[in-house]
Amino acid sequence: MSERLDIDSYADAVAELSGALASRDEQAFRAALATFDNVRDGAVLTGVRKVTVELQSALQRFELDSRLIGLAQQQVPDARRRLAHVMKLTSEAAHQTLDLAEQCTPLAENIAGDAAKILESPASRAATDPDVVSFLQRVVEGMGLLRSRLTEVRLAQGFQDLTGQIVGSVLGLVDELERALGELARITDAAGGMAAKEQTISRGLGPSVPGVGKTEALAGQQDVDALLQALGM
Amino acid sequence: MSAQQNLNFLVVDDFSTMRRIIKNLLNDLGYANVTEADDGATALPLLKAGQFDFLITDWNMPGMPGLELLKQVRADERLAKMPVLMLTAEAKREQIVEAAQAGVNGYVIKPFTSATLKEKIDKILSAQAAA
Known about the structure:
The complex is a heterodimer. Helix content of chain A is 75%, strand content 0%. Chain A has helices at residues 11-22, 26-120, 130-156, 159-188, 221-230. Chain B has one domain (4-130): 3-Layer(aba) Sandwich (Rossmann fold), CATH 3.40.50.2300. The radius of gyration of chain B is 13 Å and the shape is globular. Chain B is built from five helices and five strands, in the order βαβαβαβαβα. In chain B, helix 2 (40-49) runs parallel beside helix 3. In chain B, strand 4 (84-88), helix 4 and strand 5 (106-109) form a beta-alpha-beta unit. Chain A binds chain B through residues 91, 94-95, 98, 102, 151-152, 154-162, 164-165, and chain B through 13, 15-18, 20-21, 24-25, 28, 60, 89, 110-114.
């Protein structure tokens, strides 16, 4: 719908024009015509300014709505999945370390046990050689120390529990945030047709997290090598 | 093997790494019979059904937290005297006081050392033997 014309604002200019026309005063007519143009230009400028302000406001609202939708639909759920993935990775790493430490402990115990047996065996020729005896004693001591350090390594994996609890509490917060943002997005009813802004690859995406991002990451170095090979590299 | 080393332990923690660490340490200390549960709600039926001699529990767990498990244990006639060691990252004074009031026998803060765990278990068992 077109803007309503403010006829009154033209009254003086039209009266001047009419007067100048009636009196056949060319100079006065030109002056009145200029006044008329000014009035008309002023009305147009006011209209343009109003449209500009409305457009700017609409753009800002669109940016805000788009940001909100992006947070609710993509970034916050991504953050939740990333945190869950961190918990999974740290748990796997801790279990792997425990596996390795558990495998090493009996090795150390067996070596120490075998060395002790030789030292304690009076019939063993090795037990009469001072260098060998000294070595075997160091083996027993060293393996004892190694075993104790392996116990400490296993205990240190308790970090996964502590960091996991902290990450877990942040996850709870992110869950709440996700729900609140989803509700806010629903209320503003801005979801229709709006797509969240994609994270740009040029900035880097960080370590791959399953389920985060539109494209799946490669599973391992073999996949990377195969892809590079397929690309002719 | 001493009688104490035949004790049946129940280790309750929602983190599998921590359960494994505690179980390993108990094995190192000579306690071979260790069962695991991932929260109080899972642990309580096991305690009521099984022949456990010692409970080691975390505090902050989904489902039933360790403090509630402790209270349930103390409220159960058959389990009331069971030694309970709380092994947790919850380190606020009022929490420790609350656990003590609920009848905990020992309280170890994470991260912990093998020596601390051994010391607390030994202390609890000695006190129990003297009682």
